[in-house]
Amino acid sequence: MTGTAPERTPPADQSTTESLADLLGGRRGAVDATVPPVAFAVGWLAAGLWGGVVAAVLTGAAVAGWRLRRGDRPRSVLLGLLAVCVAALVALRTGRAGDFFLLQLVSNAASALAWIVSIVVRWPLLGVVVGTALGQRGRWRRDPALRRAYARGSWVWAATYLLRVAVFLPLWLAGQVVPLVVARVALTWPLVAAALAVSWLVIRRSLPAGHPGLRHPVVPGGSDGGPGN
């Protein structure tokens, strides 16, 4: 018999119940990110701006050492420590304790813009991140249902960054250091956990019945071979 046999869709497996938290491991970094700001606030209340800066940097270095010992990626660890050091330098430069959070405010505004643009240009960042984690390169984009699901899920993450900007901006303008720390803690790990759960639910409900899941993009009219299967 001539011709090519139709591609068989891989059966649904455990990946259909795999959570984004399992794939992305976003919780650890979110928890770690709250420690230096809390230390900054404690040091600032106890000994002024320099006290806050020293406390934040020392705590950031301790967190970095702990993460390196447990096997986290050195680049990720060093970037986290660098962010703490830059935030401390900004606060020292301006003389305003509230400016310790300026970098966080700017990064959230930039992240919100990046997520929205990625959706508009049909390269939703949630798909990029998960596809990279699964070793799929860009194959997920050739699955229209999966690309659409990732786009909808990406709106959840864009909303988290917009929410942070909406909360942080008035507090930063008013120089409210302690409320900024409280907002930083409340809008880091709890918000990340909520975004992981909600975006995963959005993705699952957006995929049509019978779709084999994130690990198995359905590529119309072609082979789905390659890494990540």
TrEMBL record:
One Pfam family, short name please?
A: DUF3159
From what superkingdom does this record's organism come?
Bacteria
Q: Which InterPro entries match?
A: UCP010219
The protein depicted here goes by the name DUF3159 domain-containing protein
Q: Which UniProt keywords apply?
A: Membrane, Transmembrane, Transmembrane helix
Record organism: Micromonospora mangrovi
Membrane spanning stretches: 38-64, 76-92, 112-134, 155-175, 181-203
